[in-house]
Amino acid sequence: MALSFPPRQLYYGGQVQPASSGKTFQTLNPATATPLADIQIASTSDIDAAIGAAEKAFPSWSQTPPIARARILQKAANLLRERNDEIARVETLDSGKAYTETSTVDVVTGADVLEYYANFIGGGGLNGETTQLREDAWVYTKKAPLGVCAGIGAWNYPIQIALWKSAACLAAGNTMVYKPSEFTPLHGLTLAEVYTEAGLPAGVFNVINGAGDVGAHLTSHPTIAKVSFTGQVATGMKVAGSASGNMKYVTMELGGKSPLIVCPDADLESAVDGAMMANFYSTGQVCTNGTRVFVPRSMKAVFEKRLLEKIPFVRAGPLFDEQTNFGPLSSAVHHEKVISYIRNGIEKDRATLLCGGPEKPNVPQDLQAGYWVKPTIFTDCTDSMSIVKEEIFGPVMSVLYYDTVEEAVQRANTTELGLAAGVFTKDLNQAHRVIDQLQAGITWINTWGESPAEMAVGGWKKSGLGVENGRRGIEAWLQNKSTLVDMSGAVATVFAKL
Which stretches make up the Aldehyde dehydrogenase domain (predicted)? Predict the structure, then answer.
């Protein structure tokens, strides 16, 4: 079978480089389970070479004036927007997300973050502070880049996450070696070429391919100053432990089991739409998804009725059909995981299956081999069920009923995770009170999921360390230097003749 794309090699030192391992893997189209391209796997010497290229480029790039760095990043953002449809088509084939999503969200929001940080540093955002201590002494601070950094991407938002990591990293004056997920690797080389076309010097952004062993060698390398990782909690904890144990900076964006609380006075349409978006967008493969939907017991009948009325609007089908808004899961192994949770919800948890289930949805014959799943809703759920406690990372909604808002908040916080949370209510005073009590780093009121470049996002508890995006996001890629200047002409000393 002829593959859709030529083999993907590595990229470092400003050019495409063949991998020396002699090993490859294939990336698949999740909609059809057919191969798209052969991906060359980086050997340890290849990884070292990529890190060496980044290390060589760091002194010059870190000393490049912020306004000059800004111009390059702005040009890269423009190139991404110009090539939006082309890149989005590849994202759709590689990730299995509908083109209606990738063409309007994935590339666009990544470019937004790149432009945000370009404008930020171009407008003096990296300037330090000056404080006069007394008439003849003052303190000034400077923000310095960290050095060579490692970015480990995720498979659910491939190019967006690559841009979330590289934009702040490069704007701050660091260099990066980036490893895409082995499940969605096609964007890596494309982004590297866009950066080079925009004028990014050789070695500033580099790409290697491979699985966990490649990532482990990259993140443990002594030259790496920081590791930015997006992925599963268990893997992230191992990566963070290894990195911080070697005094590396870390940013961890991990998983969640986020609560969405519908208050008794909430607008029914808005609450149901919010719950649908919080569970079925991107086929439920979003770390911030609100998979635990807390609903007043008094609203049980009307809430479930409206959910069932809206489920037909979740449309699986050919990924480039403008009517399709629901794609397959990303891989065979993930499909097996999600289906096992659905079966567990039915057979062991004994939750009420409102709709969906483990059977495949109705899709055309040429898509039957793909990793498709039905949007699934369980009701009458309890906090002890595995489908309620554990991250499924698929289109599986658990509806839980409560008697008081205070009870809902307490139950919402009974988890080791704290990535996102939200509340739907017409009473904004109540909304702020509830949000203030929810133990999560990303919260929404009367909406769900939007994450603009200006908004710093990061998890509490085991959902992460640090934040990405917003003004605070770039601080994670910088280190502070404080200097005290004394102009008195004399040094105060206790070591003087009595």
Answer: 20-482
pLDDT at 477 over 80: yes
CB-CB contact of 186 with 87 (8 Å):
no
The rounded distance, in Å, linking the Cα atoms of 177 and 186 is 16
pLDDT given at position 498: 86
The CATH superfamily of 10-254+463-482 is: Aldehyde Dehydrogenase; Chain A, domain 1 (3.40.605.10)
* Distance (Å, whole) CA 466 – CA 458: 6
In DSSP terms, which residues pair with 16 in a beta bridge? Answer: 11
Is the per-residue pLDDT at 391 higher than 90? yes
What is the mean pLDDT of the segment spanning 447-461?
A: 96
CB-based contact 276:291 (threshold 8 Å): no
What pLDDT digit, counting tens, does each position of 282-298 carry?
999 999 999 999 999 99
User: What residues pair up with 296 in beta bridges, in sequence order?
Assistant: 402
Q: Domain residue spans in the chain? A: 10-254+463-482, 259-445
Catalytically active residues are 253
- pLDDT band for position 206 (cuts 50, 70, 90): very high
Q: Which residues contact 331 (CB under 8 A, 6 or more apart)?
A: 28, 30, 155, 183, 371
Of 396, 449, 395, 393, residue with least CA distance to 421? 449
Question: What residue has token string 């992925």?
Answer: 231
Q: In terms of CATH, what superfamily is 259-445? A: Aldehyde Dehydrogenase; Chain A, domain 2 (3.40.309.10)
For residues 77 and 159, give the distance between their C-alpha atoms in angstroms, rounded to a whole number. Answer: 12
